[in-house]
What does this fold into?
Amino acid sequence: MPDTNPLRLGIAGLGTVGVGVVKIVRKHAKLLEARAGRPIEIIAVSARSRDKDRGVDIARYDWEDDPVAMARRDDIDVLVELMGGSDGPAKAAVEAAIASGKHVVTANKALLAHHGQDLAAAAEKAGTVLRFEAAVAGGIPVIKALTEGLAGNEITKVMGVMNGTCNYILTRMEATHQGYNALFEEAHKLGFLEADPQLDVGGIDAGHKLSLLASIAFGTQVNFDAVELEGIEQISLRDIEEAAEMGYRIKLLGVAQMTGRGLEQRMSPCLVPAASPLGQLEGGTNMVVIEGDSVGQIVMRGAGAGEGPTASAVMGDVVDLARGLDISTFGMPASRLVPAKPATAAVPAAYYLRMELEDKPGALAKVAAALGEAGVSIDRMRQHGHQNTVAPVIVVTHRCSRAQIDAAMEGLAKTPVVKGETVAIRIEEV
Amino acid sequence: MPDTNPLRLGIAGLGTVGVGVVKIVRKHAKLLEARAGRPIEIIAVSARSRDKDRGVDIARYDWEDDPVAMARRDDIDVLVELMGGSDGPAKAAVEAAIASGKHVVTANKALLAHHGQDLAAAAEKAGTVLRFEAAVAGGIPVIKALTEGLAGNEITKVMGVMNGTCNYILTRMEATHQGYNALFEEAHKLGFLEADPQLDVGGIDAGHKLSLLASIAFGTQVNFDAVELEGIEQISLRDIEEAAEMGYRIKLLGVAQMTGRGLEQRMSPCLVPAASPLGQLEGGTNMVVIEGDSVGQIVMRGAGAGEGPTASAVMGDVVDLARGLDISTFGMPASRLVPAKPATAAVPAAYYLRMELEDKPGALAKVAAALGEAGVSIDRMRQHGHQNTVAPVIVVTHRCSRAQIDAAMEGLAKTPVVKGETVAIRIEEV
It folds into this structure.
């Protein structure tokens, strides 16, 4: 018999997303009841400040100063954790909820990237369900697609642009012909950056998300530490414009792939074809690409952040719980998730290289020699007009390993005709 | 306690999709068990011919000549119906399965478009679950996204290109500069067409799918008869090339939208911007666009047909059932689905008109007058060089209602300078 009692929520965290959840529960009470088969009610809320004006009336809900105390209340069925942070109160509240037999819905990618395995095991032991659709790619129901809809597939690859702020900065650099610093400032003023901007522009936030997708896709224990991380701070307007001229766009792209050598997880700026779905992604939009042995390629696109989209993802999980969904956190029991051997840069690729060459006869030949010694062969090369005594040179290589590129970079650094640092960006033919 | 006994399947229909399902169950037995928490086994199969070579060994399964008898077997938990057809054995088998307390997974859009309401009510009464992910947009988990992932949203619009064969014909017409008939023949030779090609090119198959999405999206009873249907047979190479010159592509596009006047459902050729995700859809690929009040716009793309993708969708449903998912067929109890008032062409749009004009002074003025009398105003007009004594003229109108366009077409037909029939295609600014 399905449960027809109300599903009772305690919401910890009343920032943008928490307020969005309150609004949906209130506005769509009847619709949610029709869909879930039972009412969905907010019983208690907890946040830093009780009196802050949030544009929604929270006086009708019980207030708890301590989210852990709220998580333990007998009159809630689900803790909705929207505080964020990989440790501290968020972790304490989630653990308390699980220990006292409550389900958990969270948008907290940092928490799960660092403690997902333990929390999944704890939830299973307690017989509760831990869900996190809102933690990855905002409103796009990608956790559901991967865990449930595509459960008949061996997943071969997961890719995605999953940090809207980085994509905003990169697409605005191209559109406005301004450098990274100017657009970083713009994003900051618009409130697009996390309190610690490194989480965004350093690729950490997107790396968290990738590690969660990889766990579900490959049945492996979450291993965020094994994600090769590279942020977007080194991307110059020049690189964006050179890429555009060759038909590419630069995206902070995550790729997780099971290879013969182990699980490769990387989050780094890549050149992708401008005409591809990933290449055309503008602003804060996210895109996730999933490849499975039966389904082929599935592409999902939507808003990656913001009140409505993230609250929509939270509510998808809440309705699932109201309907009685019982599923393991990462799609199979925590005890069956295997530790994956990390494979660094296992998959070869073509690379874009940009360097400054001294304007001397034979300089290009020296570059070609340095690349050749590292086993890197040249697909295309273009030299621009001189700027003072140096000339910018762009090289597109044939497919090679990251190790070969690193060796080539070392060789180039030793070549006196190469001035400053050479930039190397992977080309992903998505 | 979750059920750890095997989930036992009876498969009715061993065409492309049925064989694909058998292959997945066999190849991924361990993976499926890990994900579902219990083994998934095929107990019995039924098809027209027992001895046909299908490339998979079916001798290990019980054979049933009669799918209805199979549906009633005590040793199956789920009927997987892959025979197709809105009535006849498919309907009889599904009804028998439900009546004897079995769950049903089907890829049969025609069956659900015609009998979905009754079957949903029967399944609920019997306490069984009826799922149909594979019936819409092949491998794209769109039923799941709409019913579950986006359950916190009031859905405002659903759009999609959901017949791969039509999209193949239209994109190949543009690529090869051949007319409709040549590409229809090509699609036929490649086995892309249904036994009754009208199901594809007449838009019926895609209309079935749209009516199912609309039911979930708007909480309404499936009403396929209210879908305004228009096929692609009237689309000429000339229209495709004219559209391309103006930055558009012609797609067989489905749109379902709740308007102030009722539920609009239409499946018809439309001009869409060539640079939009829908405009860029090539070949047999499908795309579904969902708009919700919180989530904004979600776009999902993937293979719309074929053994692997469709079997993937079937297996998604099967794994859901193994995990104990209990959900109403159309996302809420059948008794709560309301009959929606059909609203024909409620939403105004710009239109593309193509006509042949007699090459006489004042001819264009007469066209403008006929349009003006119908209340249709002209955004752009272009006249090409004469061909003999007639000149092709293209008009793009400002936004107007379908009724105004129909009145304009009537007026143009009465104008002696207009030769033959005027073509009118809606422009959807997606």
